[in-house]
Amino acid sequence: MTYTTGAAEDYLKTIYAHTEWQAELITPSALAVRLGVAPSSVTEMVKKLAANGLIAHVPYGPLALTDAGRLRATAVVRRHRLIETWLVDEMGYDWDQVHDEAEVLEHAISDRFLEAINARLGFPAHDPHGDPIPAADGTVLRPPALLLAEAVVGHAGTVLRISDRDPTVLRKLAADRIGPGAEFRLSAPLTIVLADGQNRLVTPAAAAAIWVTAQA
Amino acid sequence: MTYTTGAAEDYLKTIYAHTEWQAELITPSALAVRLGVAPSSVTEMVKKLAANGLIAHVPYGPLALTDAGRLRATAVVRRHRLIETWLVDEMGYDWDQVHDEAEVLEHAISDRFLEAINARLGFPAHDPHGDPIPAADGTVLRPPALLLAEAVVGHAGTVLRISDRDPTVLRKLAADRIGPGAEFRLSAPLTIVLADGQNRLVTPAAAAAIWVTAQA
DNA sequence: ATCGGAGTTTCGGTCCGCCTAAATTCTGGC
DNA sequence: GCCAGAATTTAGGCGGACCGAAACTCCGAT
Q1: What is the pTM of this model?
Q2: Which helix (H) or strand (E) holds A64?
Q3: Which of A110, A130, A135, B57 is 20 to 30 A away from residue A198, measured at CA?
């Protein structure tokens, strides 16, 4: 009835992550791609998660978390992001190196351990990529944001988060000193001016990974 | 061919642990008890480990690690003990609380992470219970030792290690300030005098968990 | 309005680690 | 030397997570 294996947690987390910054529901095939499994594996797990009341699913339709599922998912995300923050702040990792380690540890550490690092870090609200760390009750504070790739020329704002999907992008941006909190103005397509007046050319891949404040 | 699942690591580690302080080979049934699995499960895993050249086994006989198996086992033990040391030294755990957490983490952390904590701890030679931490090449430094339960009255020496099997024993001994490094003399059965002259009565369970230097 | 292809599900299968119950083998006491 | 009981192995099964191939459903383009 509880059903909280590492695999199930990964499915829930991935469903949650998909809807965190985009508002669309995820389809089984998209989920399969993200998880790197066959579509039939998704069907199977979806059946189990639905039977446990963690997701809502009509046959041939998209997937949506139930309240119970969302709570479970945010708990995993919370672990993942606290671990990433801790690896960067205390264990000497760079922000492009934490993902895989966190992926494993999030299923391995005890609650006690989690709270130990949380306290040590001073109860951070965001991870190194700017992603909000869900509270223990599942609450997530997420400001309105849009992709840099979708911003119009002239848009000014602050970098809120960078998707951690592509380590290459992360390394490049770190070298360019572009991270959460950076203020900028989009002076031309794929070109931003930072607070200190420096220009930066961002790759299309980077523009599709950088989320910025919606309001100037 | 490589075959290093968490379960297999646990079998190897347990076989190794059995022969670390006692010189006897372990039998399949003893291994089953230690691991909390059915004897038939042991038979099955033993077959796989033998096929992979990690243990030597003749049907109906006891189990022995091959060189390759010992190397694999000490690698796991190394992880386990470094993690325990780190949990106590840096993460605020008491020595009777680290076992379960280490049991899970030893299969989860990367080599990079392991070396990060190793460096942070200053490359310790022993864990909090006094167990030697194997070197990366599998070398283990283990002084001659005997159980306090087997020492004769009058025996004097130093506490080398305390088995971490029983948390109750560990808590009691911590309260009594008996730990690795403590000098003592066995003044009567189950009675020791510490370096500062204080007397301590040890329970039979504790006497069967405390290993001391063989020579006075 | 239908038809084909994309997306989804079903079906049968694999591997892993575990189980119980039923053989089988070994061994020590007579 | 034999034989009962203990230890071990074999046999058959289960649940979890995955797979590929085949069947099915759905929807948009014509």
Answers
A1: 0.92
A2: strand A63-65
A3: A130
